[in-house]
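Consider a typical record:
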Amino acid sequence: MHIARRCFPFVLAAGLPLGLLPAQASQAAVPRLSATVSEVSAARLGASHEPGCPVPPSRLRLIEMNHWGFDGRIHRGELIVHQDVVRPVLRVFGKAFEERFPIHRMRGMAEYGGSDASAMADDNTSAFNCRRVTGDSSHLSRHSYGDAIDINPVENPYVDRAGAIHPPAGKQHLDRDRRTKGMLRPGDAVTVAMNEAGWEWGGHWSPPDYQHFSADGT
């Protein structure tokens, strides 16, 4: 994981350390997670944030980082998370990158007008989104606090308490014995790293929420 500065002393970015021997330089050339962290404006949050949300923009951070795609290539994506979880999120995605775990796409929820349904249908990996729980509007989603992440929603569908599948295209992936690209499974790079960070996986819930990880277990 390459480290440099952008806006904060713990920010990640790319770069080859000075003074490396040839063998070390060759090793450093192996693709690793490259990320930057910066403040995020209300304008950048768009419809994913509104007055009255539990976390103000000033306490959120934009992580821009590379990830492996379903096409086997490296892409640049973004996650918006609470400032307090930046470090564990970077560790998790650093491990995912090392293991070449594929992520279909990773865009801020503003690009979907804050619509969880649209983001899931587009198989988008996302974090902060000030909204109610999908399938249970009586509760505020943990995504509203910026310490929950949904990964590859189509390959990792959510089944709500009424039995509805989100997104509908995820129905074909409810059979977890049929392995597919981007599917989260116990013991893989992502679930292990999340567990080490103290985050809970919704894949163990009943009904399951295979795409969902959260810092407080909800």
In short: The CA atoms of residues 4 and 181 lie 32 Å apart. The first strand starts at residue 35 and ends at 39. The chain has five helices and twelve strands.
